[in-house]
Amino acid sequence: MMKFDSVVLGGGIVGVSVAVQLQRRGLKVALVDRRAPGQETSLGNGGLIQREGVYPYAFPRDLMTLVRYAGNRSTDVRYHAAAMPKLLPFLYRYWHHSRADRHAAIARAYSTLIEHCVSEHRDLIEAAGAQALLRTNGWMKVFRSGAAMEAAVAEARRWQREYGVSHEALDPAALRAAEPSLSHVLAGGVRYTDADSVSDPSGLVTAYARLFEQLGGRVLTGDAMALEPSWRVMTQDGLVQASSAVVAMGPWSGDLTARLGYALPLAVKRGYHMHYAALNGAQLSQPVLDAEAGFLITPMLRGIRLTTGVELGHRDTAKTPVQLAAVEPLAREIFPLGARRDSEPWLGCRPCTPDMMPVIGPAPKHDGLWFAFGHAHHGLTLGPITGRLIAEMMTGAPRTVDPTPFRATRF
Predict the structure, then answer these.
(1) CA distances from residue 326 to 75, 148, 179, 315, 337 in whole angstroms, order as listed
(2) What confidence score (pLDDT) does residue 135 get?
(3) What proportion of the chain, given as a percentage, has pLDDT over 70?
(4) Which of 157, 222, 245, 356 would staple 56 via disulfide (CB 3.0–4.6 Å)?
């Protein structure tokens, strides 16, 4: 039997960040997952560290958008009809929390995490020696119509007034100067200058995991779902016993917490990505979101990564990459993508709560059990600050952020 102060379950960006922060504070920590760090949900995101993301992604409430989504042909949101009966209670609660006044209240709490996302990542990146993966030039939304551009600029100005989030409005000439390989048909863009991005999200998680090991932590292969109270879990290297356990299993967190007696309202948003060559020496220096079509292209080590919007369905349903097929020709309209570099699309699942905020803090029914999951679109963004907050709570240190809005008992 191997004894630790804490066992962290889940090798994604959140779990690895928790493990690093606990190990930094003098605890003896084991990190347990069935795969190597960064090989599940953390492998497939757009690489954004979204300092501007103070308003989490809300459920649409205007009738025209709802009707468009109901037709199930939208490029940014698709759904599996067979999954809807089970998902409707969650979606209703999501819609409820998305009302403008409720969404604004959520943003006030959520922003307390977001404001630390860049600084906490840069701290870990420096400690891990992963500076080569970091880009500090922001990211941008681009628009095909002037009306959409005007609405986005108004939104960015509101975010700046409320939360000090900086931006630049780019007319067509400024957009071409910033990204010469983008199509001239675009009406302009909004660049969020305070944000960072990375060229290999999985590689970043791997670098943080190496830092964790350098600090004395152990990365172990095992089935985190097999955790038992008194905090034991079997690994390939033997039985682990710990005084505390942290559930940071992303979209699988609900399975384990349900087995331990918790009925948390968790669902997933599925998403796809594919890598492409760039034609004729075309280059992209930052992530670019086509805001009207609902896809993102971003430069990665493997090539240009195209990521889709949201697919609503059950977590374990087989791949149905119709959304990727729908947006690929639209992506080729704005950037000269070449051949696909992957044999098949990658599918991942974003773990979500109906109030759009993560679950961070102690489990209410068990001593020594902690939760860190439900980050939806902002898992990469919020991993390091979540790790710091969990570590501060577990060690009794002063808290960088008030954890009250993120408690499990809010549901």
Answers:
(1) 6, 21, 24, 21, 15
(2) 98
(3) 100
(4) 356
In the prediction, which pLDDT does 38 show? 96
In whole angstroms, how far apart are CA 395 and each of 42, 140, 372, 403? 27, 39, 16, 14
Superfamily of chain region 2-45+202-265+354-410: FAD/NAD(P)-binding domain (3.50.50.60)
Residue 155 buriedness (CB in 10 A; 0-12 / 13-18 / 19+): middle
Domain ranges of the chain: 2-45+202-265+354-410
Distances (CA, A) of 4 to 37, 61, 210, 211: 19, 48, 18, 18
Q: Would you say 52 and 195 are in contact if contact means Cβ atoms under 8 Å apart?
A: yes
How far, in Å, are 16, 46, 53, 82, 148 from residue 206 at the CA level? 9, 16, 25, 37, 38
C-beta of residue 232 within 8 angstroms of C-beta of residue 239: yes
* pLDDT at residue 102, rounded to an integer: 98
As given in the structure block, the two tokens for residue 129 are: 């020696």
3-state SS string for the chain: CEEEEEEEECCCHHHHHHHHHHHHCCCCEEEEECCCCCCCHHHCCCCEECCCCCCCCCCCCCHHHHHHHHCCCCCCEEECHHHHHHHHHHHHHHHHHCCHHHHHHHHHHHHHHHCCHHHHHHHHHHHHCCHHHEECCCEEEEECCHHHHHHHHHHHHHHHHHHCCCCEEECHHHHHHHCCCCCCCCCEEEEECCCEEECCHHHHHHHHHHHHHHCCCEEEEECHHHCECCCEEEECCEEEEEEEEEECCHHHHHHHHHHCCCCCCCEEEEEEEEEEEEHHHCCCCCCEEECCCCEEEEEECCEEEEECCEEECCCCCCCCCHHHHHHHHHHHHHCCEEEECCCCCEEEEEEECCCCCCEEEECCCCCCEEEEECCHHHHHHHHHHHHHHHHHHHHCCCCCCCCHHHCHHHC
* Residues 125, 204 contacting (CB under 8 angstroms): yes
Tokens 């979209």 correspond to 251
Centre a 10 Å sphere on the Cβ of residue 339 and count the other Cβ atoms it contains: 9
Tokens at residue 77, please? 């949101």
What's the chain's average pLDDT? 97
Give the whole-angstrom CA distance, residue 284 versus residue 296: 12
CB-based contact 382:358 (threshold 8 Å): yes
Query: Is pTM, for the whole model, over 0.90?
Result: yes
Both tokens of residue 319?
A: 């791949």
